[in-house]
Known about the structure:
By secondary structure, this protein is of the alpha/beta class. The chain folds into 3 domains: 10-76, Multidrug-efflux Transporter Regulator, Chain: A, Domain 2; 80-170, Methionine synthase domain (Methyltransferase, Methionine Synthase (B12-binding Domains), Chain A, domain 1, Orthogonal Bundle), CATH 1.10.1240; 180-297, Rossmann fold. 61% of the residues lie in helices and 9% in strands. It is built from 14 helices and 7 strands. The chain has helices at 10-17, 21-31, 48-62, 67-76, 79-105, 109-122, 125-145, 151-170, 193-204, 218-228, 243-256, 268-271, 275-279, 286-297, and strands at residues 37-38, 44-45, 180-185, 208-211, 232-236, 261-265, 281-283. A 5-stranded parallel β-sheet has the order 4-3-5-6-7, with helices on both faces. Strands 1-2 form a two-stranded antiparallel sheet. Helix 9 (193-204) links the parallel strand 3 and strand 4 (208-211). Helix 3 packs across helix 4 (67-76) and helix 8 runs parallel beside helix 9. It starts with 9 loop residues before the first helix and ends with a helix. InterPro entries: Cbl-bd_cap (IPR003759), Cobalamin-bd_sf (IPR036724), DNA-bd_dom_put_sf (IPR009061), MerR-type_HTH_dom (IPR000551), MerR_fam (IPR047057), Meth_synthase_dom (IPR036594). GO terms for molecular function: cobalamin binding; DNA binding; DNA-binding transcription factor activity; metal ion binding.
Amino acid sequence: MAEDQGKYNIKAISNLLGIQPGTLRAWERRYNIIEPIRNNSGHRLYSDEHVAILRWLIEKVNKGFTIGQAVGLLDKGDIHEETNQSSHYENRLQTLTNELKESLISFQTSKANVILDEVFSLFSIEKVVMDVFSALIEDIGIMVKHKRITVAHEQFITHYLKGRLGIIFNNIQSDTLLPKVVTVCGPGENKELDLLIFTIYLRKKGYEVIYLGTNVPLEALKIVVQEFNAKYLFLSCTVSENIPKTISFIDAINHFSNDIRLGLFGNGKKLLLEGEYKKIVIGSTKLEWDEWLTTSFNKN
């Protein structure tokens, strides 16, 4: 067990690693993987070694292991050696991500392609999409907000990333035995890259997905859902101002068909939905998606 001093509370761990506090507590109770240090107030505190262990486990889960399998691997091996190797690759990934961002900001698509080719040679598609592309999207949004780059830069980079994500999506095979899914940006939503990443996540799970993008009228969406025989429909709502229109949209879909199951892509803490609407919020991180799918998506 770690002897170094605890310095991260459970909220900090959640933000740092992208794991829900409830999930972390459940792992601790069931698998006894770590024992948090308690401060004078009785609150959990986590050390750097705890962080290393949790990061290692989350990485294994993200690669397709169950948490039980990951804990089994942890019990058999020396985490420190593997953690050092993992740290090396994480540092390389961060360097390549920064180089990719700078090449795109300077409109050097050929250089960006070379960098991405190296990234894909070192890391899985899922890791590149979830870590590299998601980080780029967030960074570009921040840079535009603070006027460090122009909207024209953002549109150029968005177009480039959308093209690369589209190639990835179209090259992932789906399982025809699984239910069909439609994903679409909700009313007023014009930021589609995050939803496209979620769509790729679903395709990696094996689901046959149609991605419709932005500005799809309700009547057109009804036709697609019916013709495609979709069993699940996911809408994005990432801006709080769009909540009223999104709720009306959801109500209209429910009135159209009680058989289709709905999911709402977006940050639940920001959306502040209540009642039945809160239950369909799937979140905006992979761990939230995994948890939502496990508890809701696979119910018959």
